[in-house]
Design brief:
lyase, globular, 7-stranded mixed beta sheet, PyrdxlP-dep_Trfase, carboxy-lyase activity, single chain, 2 domains, alpha/beta, Aspartate Aminotransferase, domain 1, PyrdxlP-dep_Trfase_small, pyridoxal phosphate binding, 12 helices
Length: 442
């Protein structure tokens, strides 16, 4: 083993992008922590496979307890809790959660429409800021690509999806004889951190019996703080909600919470019941309470599964609500500091107002109008920062603008690291701008 580990140090580590660095500001950081590592070691070391109740009763029970804890912490409506007839499951990723909910929505709709041949009429709706996972998931469950509607957003709505835009698209499709199936509302989009108008979208979806999924993969963690829970207003109108503790909740990859208001919709689409997997002595009282035996294989794509619940349980026990709120607020405060510095520097501009811990900015066009040169300057600036090895960020493009993203969220990231990256940006900006200076500006 010592030779293998030496090879890892020599050959593997130099070629990695170090996601746990406090100077990692790209994508949305995948948090690791000492408690998360301890939970991961327990999960891996015990190596149980809680796909049916009898396979590991305590593991299945712990999962149902943990997802209810999480729902309460985030202020989710009671309808997503087990004791109220809903329930939750720990998936590996949002992509898995999306495929499962799309399958549930599909089968529920096809049951009403009288057969699988009606699948060609089903339509899925999302915005141009929605994660591409939803387009991939729609294809995987058999929705024709031509029936996926990408609805434009604008700066006027903060790049959030509006009910008016959805209504126009849905009414047009209904006029063509199509069937609205599924609508995604996002709190904290990947590119810009935008927030959709959840309540308005939920009310619009109810007109046509659409399944509403609330995707809070990144920003859902912020809802542990009461001052951020307003972003989830209208969640009671959703059929499902998902968020990823492995993004901003100190939980090692992989862990995605998925809650559904009606578990039977999910299990009807995903369940299998071969004789060799039947539980012995399982009992479901059917009274809308948490069942005595939960077969989580029927809540996900694969049959087998990891013991993720113990990892999240250790996180919650170790840091508690107060500790997690402090973790979130530290990052939000650092992002706010960075946003203020960007706004105060006449060379830069904040592209969209910051809501959580993601700041989207760029070098502003000197000529007062956007052109290709402005995008080239910002591309060069991002490349120079990343090439320095002192920070790592990514970009997004909105309305033709090349935008630099600084996502604060690393487990060890402090204000000091954000201050250092601002100093780095200022220096690199001065170097890059020297190459583009012309008598009349850019």
């Amino acid at each position: 083993m010592e030779h293998i580990l030496e090879d890892v140090r020599r050959d593997i580590l130099p070629g990695l992008t170090h996601w746990q660095s406090p100077r990692f500001f790209a994508f949305f950081p995948m948090n690791a922590s000492s408690a998360g590592l301890a939970g991961e070691m327990l999960s891996v070391g015990l190596n149980v496979v809680p796909f049916v109740w009898a396979a590991s009763p305590a593991a299945a029970e712990l999962e149902s307890v943990v997802v209810d804890w999480m729902a309460r912490l985030f202020g989710l409506p009671r309808r997503f809790l087990f004791y109220s007839g809903g329930g939750g499951v720990l998936q590996g990723s949002t992509c898995e959660a999306v495929v499962c909910t799309l399958a549930a929505a599909r089968d529920r709709a096809l049951g009403r429409l009288g057969g699988h041949e009606a699948i060609a009429r089903l339509v899925v709706y999302a915005s141009d800021q929605t994660h591409a996972t939803f387009q991939k998931g729609a294809r995987l469950v058999g929705i024709p690509p031509s029936n996926f509607r990408v609805i434009r957003t604008s700066a006027a709505s903060g790049y959030g999806l509006t009910a008016e835009a959805v209504r126009a698209a849905v009414d047009h499709d209904v006029g063509l004889g199509l069937v609205p199936l599924y609508l995604c509302a996002t709190v904290g989009t990947t590119g810009l951190g935008a927030v959709d108008h959840v309540r308005e979208l939920g009310e619009e979806a109810r007109r046509h019996g659409m399944w509403v999924h609330l995707d809070a993969a990144y920003a859902g963690s912020a809802a542990i703080c009461p001052d951020f829970q307003d972003y989830l207003d209208g969640a009671e109108l959703a059929d499902s909600v998902s968020m990823n503790p492995h993004k901003w909740f100190l939980t090692n990859m992989d862990c995605c919470c998925l809650w559904v208001a009606r578990p039977r919709d999910l299990t009807s689409a995903l369940s299998t019941d071969p004789e060799y997997l039947k539980n012995v002595g399982a009992d479901d009282d059917g009274a809308g309470k948490a069942p005595a035996a939960i077969d989580y294989k029927d809540w996900q794509i694969s049959m087998t599964r990891r013991f993720r619940a113990i990892k999240l349980w250790v996180i919650l026990r170790r840091y508690g609500a107060a500790g997690m709120r402090a973790h979130i607020r530290r990052h939000v405060a650092a992002a706010k500091w960075f946003e203020q510095r960007v706004a105060a520097d006449e060379r830069f501009e904040v592209v969209v107002p910051r809501r959580f811990s993601l700041v989207c900015f760029r070098l502003a066009p000197r000529s007062g109008r956007d052109d290709d040169a402005t995008n080239h300057v910002n591309r060069d600036l991002l490349a120079a920062v990343n090439a320095s090895g002192r920070a790592f960020m990514t970009h997004f493009v909105v309305d033709g603008k090349f935008v630099i993203r600084l996502a604060v969220g690393g487990a060890s990231t402090e204000l000091q690291h954000v201050m250092e990256v601002w100093d780095l940006l200022q220096g690199k900006a001065a170097e890059v701008l020297q190459h583009y200076v012309k008598p009349n500006g850019l």
